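With this grant's support, we have settled on a layout for protein records. An illustrative entry appears below exactly as we store it:
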Amino acid sequence: MKNRPLVSLTILFFMLGFSQAVCAYTILDSSVYAGHTYHLLDYDVQFWGCAEGDAISLGGNLVAVNDAAENQWIFDTFSGTVLTEWANNDGGSGTPSIWLGLTRPIADPNWVWSNGDSFTYSNWTPGEPGLGATEISAGMLVSNAWGTPGKWHDIQDPIVSGLDYTYALVEVGSQVPVPEPTTMLLFGTGLLGLAGISIRRKEK
Protein backbone atom coordinates (compact mmCIF):
# COMPACT_ATOMS: atom_id res chain seq x y z
CA MET A 1 0.00 0.00 0.00
CA LYS A 2 1.32 3.45 -0.89
CA ASN A 3 2.15 5.93 1.81
CA ARG A 4 0.33 9.21 1.19
CA PRO A 5 1.14 11.95 3.69
CA LEU A 6 -0.46 15.36 3.40
CA VAL A 7 0.97 17.36 0.52
CA SER A 8 3.41 19.92 1.86
CA LEU A 9 3.13 23.61 1.10
CA THR A 10 6.31 23.30 -0.95
CA ILE A 11 4.72 20.75 -3.28
CA LEU A 12 1.52 22.78 -3.52
CA PHE A 13 3.49 25.85 -4.61
CA PHE A 14 5.41 23.64 -7.04
CA MET A 15 2.08 22.44 -8.51
CA LEU A 16 0.91 26.03 -8.74
CA GLY A 17 3.64 26.73 -11.28
CA PHE A 18 2.50 24.16 -13.84
CA SER A 19 -1.16 23.50 -12.99
CA GLN A 20 -2.40 25.27 -16.14
CA ALA A 21 0.33 24.06 -18.53
CA VAL A 22 -1.61 21.60 -20.69
CA CYS A 23 -0.30 20.44 -24.08
CA ALA A 24 -1.80 18.41 -26.91
CA TYR A 25 -1.17 14.69 -26.47
CA THR A 26 -2.21 11.23 -27.67
CA ILE A 27 -2.99 8.35 -25.29
CA LEU A 28 -0.99 5.43 -26.69
CA ASP A 29 -1.95 2.80 -24.13
CA SER A 30 -3.80 2.35 -20.84
CA SER A 31 -3.73 -0.36 -18.19
CA VAL A 32 -4.73 -0.98 -14.56
CA TYR A 33 -2.47 -1.98 -11.67
CA ALA A 34 -3.38 -2.26 -7.97
CA GLY A 35 -6.63 -0.39 -8.57
CA HIS A 36 -4.97 2.55 -10.31
CA THR A 37 -5.31 3.42 -14.01
CA TYR A 38 -2.19 4.28 -16.00
CA HIS A 39 -2.18 6.21 -19.29
CA LEU A 40 0.87 6.39 -21.57
CA LEU A 41 1.00 9.74 -23.39
CA ASP A 42 2.87 10.72 -26.53
CA TYR A 43 3.39 14.28 -27.74
CA ASP A 44 6.11 16.64 -28.87
CA VAL A 45 6.61 18.43 -25.56
CA GLN A 46 9.84 19.66 -24.00
CA PHE A 47 8.81 20.54 -20.46
CA TRP A 48 8.10 18.19 -17.54
CA GLY A 49 5.65 20.73 -16.11
CA CYS A 50 3.56 20.53 -19.27
CA ALA A 51 3.37 16.74 -18.95
CA GLU A 52 2.34 17.07 -15.29
CA GLY A 53 -0.33 19.56 -16.33
CA ASP A 54 -1.71 16.98 -18.75
CA ALA A 55 -1.71 14.39 -15.98
CA ILE A 56 -3.66 16.70 -13.70
CA SER A 57 -6.16 17.38 -16.50
CA LEU A 58 -6.74 13.61 -16.68
CA GLY A 59 -7.45 13.43 -12.96
CA GLY A 60 -4.06 12.21 -11.75
CA ASN A 61 -0.36 12.98 -11.73
CA LEU A 62 2.69 11.67 -13.49
CA VAL A 63 3.39 8.23 -12.05
CA ALA A 64 4.90 7.78 -8.59
CA VAL A 65 6.83 4.49 -8.47
CA ASN A 66 6.79 3.22 -4.90
CA ASP A 67 8.37 -0.23 -5.09
CA ALA A 68 10.24 -2.66 -7.33
CA ALA A 69 7.11 -4.58 -8.28
CA GLU A 70 5.39 -1.47 -9.63
CA ASN A 71 8.57 -0.45 -11.44
CA GLN A 72 8.81 -3.84 -13.15
CA TRP A 73 5.12 -3.81 -14.08
CA ILE A 74 5.47 -0.37 -15.69
CA PHE A 75 8.46 -1.49 -17.72
CA ASP A 76 6.85 -4.78 -18.78
CA THR A 77 3.53 -3.11 -19.66
CA PHE A 78 4.60 0.04 -21.50
CA SER A 79 8.19 -0.26 -22.77
CA GLY A 80 7.17 -2.23 -25.88
CA THR A 81 4.64 0.42 -26.88
CA VAL A 82 7.22 3.18 -26.34
CA LEU A 83 9.87 1.43 -28.44
CA THR A 84 7.43 0.76 -31.28
CA GLU A 85 6.13 4.34 -31.32
CA TRP A 86 9.64 5.77 -31.00
CA ALA A 87 11.03 3.68 -33.87
CA ASN A 88 8.07 3.91 -36.26
CA ASN A 89 6.64 7.38 -35.74
CA ASP A 90 9.08 9.51 -33.77
CA GLY A 91 12.29 9.14 -35.75
CA GLY A 92 14.13 6.71 -33.49
CA SER A 93 16.65 9.34 -32.36
CA GLY A 94 17.83 10.16 -28.85
CA THR A 95 17.13 8.12 -25.74
CA PRO A 96 13.50 7.01 -25.28
CA SER A 97 12.29 7.31 -21.69
CA ILE A 98 9.05 7.31 -19.73
CA TRP A 99 8.66 10.51 -17.73
CA LEU A 100 7.96 9.89 -14.03
CA GLY A 101 6.36 12.21 -11.50
CA LEU A 102 9.78 12.71 -9.91
CA THR A 103 11.22 16.22 -9.88
CA ARG A 104 13.36 18.60 -7.87
CA PRO A 105 13.79 22.35 -7.65
CA ILE A 106 16.85 23.81 -9.40
CA ALA A 107 19.95 23.70 -7.16
CA ASP A 108 18.22 21.31 -4.74
CA PRO A 109 19.32 17.64 -4.78
CA ASN A 110 16.17 16.43 -3.00
CA TRP A 111 13.66 14.64 -5.23
CA VAL A 112 9.88 14.68 -4.64
CA TRP A 113 6.89 12.91 -6.19
CA SER A 114 4.39 15.34 -7.68
CA ASN A 115 1.41 13.55 -6.08
CA GLY A 116 2.84 13.94 -2.56
CA ASP A 117 3.94 10.33 -1.97
CA SER A 118 7.02 9.86 0.18
CA PHE A 119 10.19 9.30 -1.83
CA THR A 120 11.22 5.97 -0.28
CA TYR A 121 12.05 3.89 -3.38
CA SER A 122 14.42 4.67 -6.23
CA ASN A 123 15.91 2.71 -9.13
CA TRP A 124 18.63 4.92 -10.63
CA THR A 125 20.89 3.51 -13.32
CA PRO A 126 24.60 3.57 -12.29
CA GLY A 127 26.01 7.09 -12.39
CA GLU A 128 22.59 8.72 -12.03
CA PRO A 129 21.21 11.09 -11.02
CA GLY A 130 23.73 13.43 -12.56
CA LEU A 131 22.14 16.47 -10.87
CA GLY A 132 23.13 18.79 -13.68
CA ALA A 133 21.92 22.38 -13.47
CA THR A 134 18.87 21.69 -15.66
CA GLU A 135 18.39 17.97 -14.91
CA ILE A 136 15.32 18.48 -12.74
CA SER A 137 13.02 15.68 -13.93
CA ALA A 138 13.42 11.91 -14.10
CA GLY A 139 12.50 9.16 -16.53
CA MET A 140 12.58 5.39 -16.85
CA LEU A 141 14.88 4.11 -19.59
CA VAL A 142 13.28 1.77 -22.13
CA SER A 143 16.40 1.09 -24.21
CA ASN A 144 20.07 0.48 -23.38
CA ALA A 145 21.22 3.65 -25.14
CA TRP A 146 21.95 5.46 -21.85
CA GLY A 147 21.86 2.75 -19.19
CA THR A 148 19.96 -0.32 -18.02
CA PRO A 149 16.37 -0.56 -19.33
CA GLY A 150 13.88 -0.20 -16.50
CA LYS A 151 16.19 1.97 -14.43
CA TRP A 152 15.95 5.74 -14.06
CA HIS A 153 17.99 8.75 -15.13
CA ASP A 154 17.54 12.47 -14.64
CA ILE A 155 16.54 14.50 -17.67
CA GLN A 156 17.24 18.07 -18.72
CA ASP A 157 14.25 20.39 -18.65
CA PRO A 158 13.60 21.62 -21.26
CA ILE A 159 14.62 18.50 -23.15
CA VAL A 160 17.61 18.90 -25.46
CA SER A 161 16.57 18.00 -29.02
CA GLY A 162 18.26 14.81 -30.24
CA LEU A 163 19.38 13.76 -26.74
CA ASP A 164 16.15 12.54 -25.13
CA TYR A 165 12.75 11.57 -26.45
CA THR A 166 10.32 11.35 -23.57
CA TYR A 167 6.84 9.91 -23.20
CA ALA A 168 4.78 10.41 -20.06
CA LEU A 169 2.98 7.97 -17.78
CA VAL A 170 -0.06 9.23 -15.90
CA GLU A 171 -1.32 7.49 -12.77
CA VAL A 172 -4.95 8.02 -11.76
CA GLY A 173 -6.06 6.53 -8.46
CA SER A 174 -6.84 7.08 -4.79
CA GLN A 175 -4.14 9.69 -4.28
CA VAL A 176 -3.95 13.08 -2.60
CA PRO A 177 -6.66 15.22 -4.26
CA VAL A 178 -5.24 17.85 -6.58
CA PRO A 179 -7.17 21.15 -6.44
CA GLU A 180 -8.49 22.66 -9.63
CA PRO A 181 -6.23 25.41 -11.06
CA THR A 182 -8.60 28.18 -9.92
CA THR A 183 -8.74 26.69 -6.41
CA MET A 184 -4.95 26.46 -6.31
CA LEU A 185 -4.62 30.08 -7.40
CA LEU A 186 -7.00 31.16 -4.64
CA PHE A 187 -5.07 29.02 -2.16
CA GLY A 188 -1.77 30.56 -3.24
CA THR A 189 -3.22 34.07 -3.12
CA GLY A 190 -4.53 33.38 0.37
CA LEU A 191 -1.12 32.21 1.57
CA LEU A 192 0.54 35.28 0.10
CA GLY A 193 -2.05 37.44 1.82
CA LEU A 194 -1.37 35.77 5.16
CA ALA A 195 2.35 36.28 4.63
CA GLY A 196 1.72 39.96 3.95
CA ILE A 197 -0.35 40.32 7.12
CA SER A 198 2.43 38.66 9.14
CA ILE A 199 5.06 40.99 7.70
CA ARG A 200 2.95 44.09 8.41
CA ARG A 201 2.43 42.96 12.02
CA LYS A 202 6.18 42.59 12.49
CA GLU A 203 6.77 46.08 11.13
CA LYS A 204 4.44 47.68 13.68
User: Anything to note?
Assistant: The radius of gyration is 18 Å.
